[in-house]
Hints:
Structural class: alpha/beta
Oligomer: single chain
Largest sheet: 4 strands, parallel
Radius of gyration: 12 Å
Amino acid sequence: MSSLKEIVNHAQTSIVDVRTIMEYQSGHVEGAVNIPLDEVQSRISEFEKMPKPIVVYCRSGARSGMAMSILKQSGINEVYNGGGLADMQMLIN
């Protein structure tokens, strides 16, 4: 299995920021899509259409963990918790 660093840096990977719109606007990973945690459940169809794998992140890793659980429960298995924004910035080449 690939490391999270390899997954994050793969061209096919979809990166989703599950923080609020204001948090996203204050800084995010380049190319990340903003789908706030409270909208994840209602936007499952968008996740289904995204190239896989999907890496979700937030500020600390807690909300992205919840988002990952919601997605897995909805049948989207190729999803990874990238942790917080700082974690993601360290993973990106």
